[in-house]
Structures are given as structure tokens and as C-alpha cells.
Write a structure and sequence with these properties.
Its main location: membrane. This protein is α+β, with helices and mostly antiparallel strands. 66% of the residues lie in helices and 14% in strands. The chain has helices at 2-18, 26-36, 38-59, 109-175, 181-215, 243-253, 255-275, 307-313, 332-398, 404-438; strands at 23-24, 64-79, 86-105, 225-226, 281-293, 316-324.
Length: 446
């Protein structure tokens, strides 16, 4: 991540020095989105929290040690905590103790808790990686939409430039009386329509750039743009694989499937933890304590015993083991086990549903990419036919054998066909990349 950030800063600095707006490639957009997406940052915090849960589970196997110190005074009738005799005077006392306990056996719940914590951390990682996969797809789709809108705008401007030439020529021919005034009005209407298309195209480019920038968490929309490159449909042999082959490959690496599978293992561990409450537990404990009293005296001399000597004389050790046998707990353990079994069954069903959804998505994507290919090929053929028709109409219009209205219709058909070629081309590119992504190939336009 640090290398990508440094690279991005260097590229940005170069752009500032040269005074040119930085042009983002698809790969740069994907890396930047993953490094800066706020939802990813939230999921990363969740992963850190899962690692802390693992540390908590390990801590459950370690002994617990606690110490306590207490000092005070009393005036009047009280019991001396050392001699346990009543006394009616001012007395200062102090006590201290240290207690240690360790769980020797708890029905394997602590061990299962550690295993569960490991699985939960793994599930959090899969959840994070699955989110990154979704962001890669969304960024690629938004990036291709900008490319599509830019190319459409470029074609619109080129078509308008041709119309301007026709408009100038028509103005001259109308002035010379070769063509009627109506033809000029038709050409002017066509030019106005194309101007409107250019304005709409510019707006679409701006909006799609903003949409992509928002995915990248970039707010400087005015200075954000992508690389101006023309992309053809990339060569791909992905369709040489059947949907079943793609699905089988996807099952081996897809993070959403691994997450679902891990959730089943988590539910199994929860069931074991819940069932451990039926088993007796064994604990060991150790306690060391001592005390001091200002009224404690040596029984032979009657003199006050010093603080340090009292701590030595009055200390004691208490230790042992304790076994707890669950007999009846208001059905809470039984109900907890039942809920865990239900959760396990739900996790298993969800795992099967996720696999079924993945298979459905892959089959749909496979069909879509084939249909997109056919649509693109049909759009190209349509454009070629419309262009030939337009060229023929233009020849007839130039010699006065075709009126301006019919010529405008031929031109509009070319415009629509050109726009459809662009739309179907980038739709085809995205569909190819989506199927490749299901097969484990990285998203790139190279």
C-alpha cells in the first residue's frame, strides 16, 4: 500500500510541475479506491477487532492473578483483625492478599473459543477481500462508462463538424438559388439538434467523471479525469471455457464463497462451545494473605510487634481445587445448544445459496457476454450500412436529387448507429472483463 501511495504522490507531483491535469488509468483508479475507500477502512478496523478477540480467547487459558491491600483505623469498640478479640481503643490495621486461579478444564470451551477466534479473523479477512472485489467491479464499470461517454461526445463533435460544412455549402447554394430556403432550415435544425447532443454529451461526461471520483473518495471533481485513450474490444479466450469450468474455478478462490464456508465452521464451533456447558469444570486456586494491627503484641514480652515482623508472623496460604457440575440451569444450556444447531443449519443453507447464486451469476454473465458480442457485431454492421446509405444520400443531396429533410433523416440514422456502436462496444468490454474476473483474471484494459 505504501508503494502505491508514494507512486500516486509522485505522479500527482509531476502533473503539478508540468501544469497538466493528471489522467488516471483504470489500474490507478482501482488501487486508489481500495486504498482510500471509507467502507474498506471500516472493514479493516473490524479485522483488527477480530484479532483482539483472538487475544481474548488465548487469555482465557492463562491464570488470573489479583492483589488487594487495605489499611484503615478505628476508634471505639471493634475487633482486632489479628487477635480477633474485642478492643475499645484507637487501632490501625492493614491487610493484604494475593489470589491466583486457573481453569484446568472447562469442557474444551476455551480451546474452541480460540479456534473460533481464528476462524472469525479469517472470516473478517474474507469479508474485507470480498468488498475489495466489489469495488474493483464497480470502479471498472464506472471507468468504462466515462470512456463510453467521452467517445460518444467525440463522435458527436465530429458529426457536427461535417454538418457545419454542409450548412455552409447549403447557405451558398440557397443564396445562388440552387436550393430552396427550406433545405437550409432543415440543415440548421439538424445542426441545432447536434449541438444539443454535444451539450448533453458534455454533461454525461461530467456526471460520469463525478460518479467515478466519488467511488475513489475524490472531491476535486473539476481536476479529475481519466486517460484519453481509444480502446478496442480486447482479445480474450475466456469463452473457450464452459460456464461449469468457470464456476469450478471460481469456487476455489472467490472470497464470498470462502466467507460463507468459514461461517459454517464458525457455527460448528459455536455449537461445540454451547455444548461444553453440559460438562463439569475444574479450577485451581491459590491465596496468600497477611495482616497488621497496631494493638498486636508479643505474648512473651507484651511489646508491640513491628510492622514487618507482623506481616511475617500473620501470613497464611490457602489453596485447593474446585469442581463445578452443571445440574440444572433453567434450560438455558439446552436452549443455547438448540439455537446453535439452528444457526449451524442456517449457515449451511446460506453456503449452498451463495454457491447457487455464484453459479447463476456466472451463467448469466456468460450469456450476457455472448449477447453483447452479437449486439456489438450487429451494431457495427448497422453503422456500415447506415454510412453507405448516408454517403449515397449525400451524393444525391449535393446534386439536388434529395431534399434536406430526407438527407437529415439519413444523417440522424448514422448518428444513432454510431452511438449504438459505442454503447455496445463498452458493454461488451465490461461483460468480457466480468467473466474474466469470475475466472480469477485481474481487471485491466491492456
Amino acid at each position: 500500500m505504501k508503494i502505491r501511495i508514494i507512486t500516486a504522490l509522485c505522479l500527482l507531483s509531476i502533473g503539478m510541475v508540468t501544469g497538466q491535469m493528471r489522467k488516471w488509468t483504470l489500474e490507478e483508479c482501482v488501487y486508489y479506491a481500495i486504498d482510500n475507500n471509507l467502507t474498506i477502512q471500516q472493514f479493516e478496523l473490524g479485522l483488527e477487532d477480530a484479532k483482539i478477540d483472538k487475544s481474548d480467547a488465548i487469555g482465557g487459558l492463562l491464570p488470573s492473578v489479583n492483589g488487594q491491600l487495605q489499611a484503615g483505623g478505628n476508634t471505639g469498640l471493634t475487633f482486632d483483625p489479628v487477635s480477633n478479640q474485642p478492643t475499645n481503643t484507637t487501632i490501625q490495621t492493614a491487610t493484604g492478599n494475593t489470589t491466583a486461579s486457573v481453569n484446568l478444564f472447562d469442557g474444551l470451551r476455551n480451546l474452541n473459543a480460540i479456534r473460533r477466534a481464528n476462524l472469525n479473523a479469517l472470516a473478517s479477512q474474507y469479508r474485507l477481500d470480498d468488498l475489495k472485489d466489489d469495488i474493483r467491479i464497480n470502479v471498472a464499470l464506472a471507468y468504462l462508462q466515462v470512456l463510453s461517454n467521452k467517445e460518444t461526445l467525440k463522435v458527436s463533435r465530429a458529426q457536427y463538424a461535417v454538418t457545419e460544412q454542409d450548412l455552409k455549402r447549403t447557405e451558398v447554394q440557397v443564396q445562388e438559388g440552387v436550393l430552396p430556403q427550406g433545405d437550409l432550415l432543415e440543415i440548421q435544425a439538424t445542426a441545432a439538434t447536434q449541438e444539443q447532443q454535444i451539450i448533453n454529451g458534455e454533461n454525461q461526461v461530467i456526471l460520469s467523471r463525478i460518479s467515478l471520483a466519488q467511488l475513489l473518495q475524490i472531491t476535486d471533481y473539476e481536476n479529475f479525469d481519466i486517460a484519453d485513450e481509444d480502446y478496442d474490444v480486447p482479445p480474450s479466450d475466456i469463452l473457450n471455457n464452459s460456464p461449469k469450468e468457470i464456476y469450478a474455478k471460481a469456487l476455489t478462490f472467490r472470497n464470498d464463497i470462502k466467507l460463507s464456508e468459514t461461517n459454517v465452521e464458525l457455527a460448528e464451533k459455536d455449537l461445540r462451545i454451547a455444548g461444553g456447558a453440559y460438562i463439569p469444570t475444574l479450577d485451581a486456586f491459590f491465596n496468600y494473605s497477611t495482616r497488621y494491627s497496631s494493638e498486636f503484641r508479643d505474648p512473651t514480652t507484651g511489646e508491640n510487634v513491628s510492622f514487618g515482623r507482623q506481616l511475617w508472623l500473620n501470613d497464611g496460604i490457602f489453596y485447593g481445587a474446585r469442581i463445578s457440575v452443571p445440574i440444572f440451569n433453567g434450560l438455558s444450556t439446552r436452549n443455547s445448544v438448540k439455537r446453535s444447531r439452528i444457526n449451524l443449519k442456517q449457515a449451511e443453507l446460506q453456503y449452498e445459496l451463495d454457491k447457487l447464486e455464484l453459479e447463476t451469476n456466472i451463467n448469466q454473465a456468460y450469456v450476457d457476454v455472448k449477447n453483447s458480442a452479437k449486439n456489438y457485431e450487429a451494431a457495427v454492421k448497422t453503422l456500415e450500412a447506415r454510412q453507405l446509405s448516408y454517403d449515397y444520400a449525400k451524393e444525391r443531396y449535393d446534386v439536388g436529387l434529395l431534399n434536406a429533410f430526407d438527407f437529415g433523416v439519413a444523417q440522424a440514422r448514422v448518428d444513432n448507429a454510431a452511438a449504438e456502436v459505442i454503447r455496445t462496444k463498452y458493454d461488451y468490454i465490461f461483460r468480457i472483463k466480468l467473466v474474466e474476473f469470475y475466472f480469477g483474471l485481474p481487471i485491466t484494459l491492456n
